[in-house]
What does this fold into?
Amino acid sequence: MGSNQQQQRVVNVVAVFFFLVLIPVTQSLPFIVLHGIGDQCKNGGVTNFVKLLSDWSGSQGYCLGIGNGMWTSWTKPLLKQTAIACEKVKKMSELNQGYNIVGLSQGNVIGRGIIEFCDGGPPVKNFISLGGPHAGTASIPLCGSEKVCTLIDSVIKFGVYSSIVQNSLAPTGYVKMPIDIAGYLKGCKFLPKLNNEIINKRNSTYSKRFASLENLVLYYV
Ligand SMILES: *[C@@H]1O[C@H](CO)[C@@H](O)[C@H](O)[C@H]1NC(C)=O
It folds into this structure.
């Protein structure tokens, strides 16, 4: 979502969706927003986005932060980020009758992680995914800050599917190199589990939970 125009288009799509699809079936259900990599809930962009959706839909919206947002989103493995998010939604009594998830970029795979892995969590009714890397990416997202770039350079030489890299750079959890699918299935710690791709470790609970959504919107950017 580089340009304002693009952002505006995305916001319009979500707004139309809220008006036409969500409101009639799920009036007053609250929603959470999961932000993208390098972002944080207190940033203006996310804050305004949550507020716009709340104003337009009349539903209560919350930005769900994990750790300190910016650094955590880059460095904490996604299984751990998902576990933290799961504990948070369980503690939010506002969500216990059901809620919707709106994901931005990396936040989408965490959203899907909540839907699939969060045992005992409140029910997710609708999921709107904006630019989610659900099928993986073939590279690390562009560096946002110098500190992060140094880290990326120093760890990537160990190989993207090595434990050290998987444990220290969150986006490697959804790097799917087309030239090394075997390495991906063996070493990548997040997406293969999320997508039930490892043949002898498939878990039908994950697919059942995902299929229980009332509406799924996938917006491609
Ligand atoms: C599948 O996932 C569910 C939910 O997390 C878990 O309770 C169950 O033990 C898992 N089954 C297997 C075979 O791993």
Q: What stands out?
A: Residues 4-25 form the longest helix (22 residues). Residues 138 and 178 are 7 Å apart (CA to CA). The longest strand covers residues 124-130. The chain is about 45% helix and 10% strand.
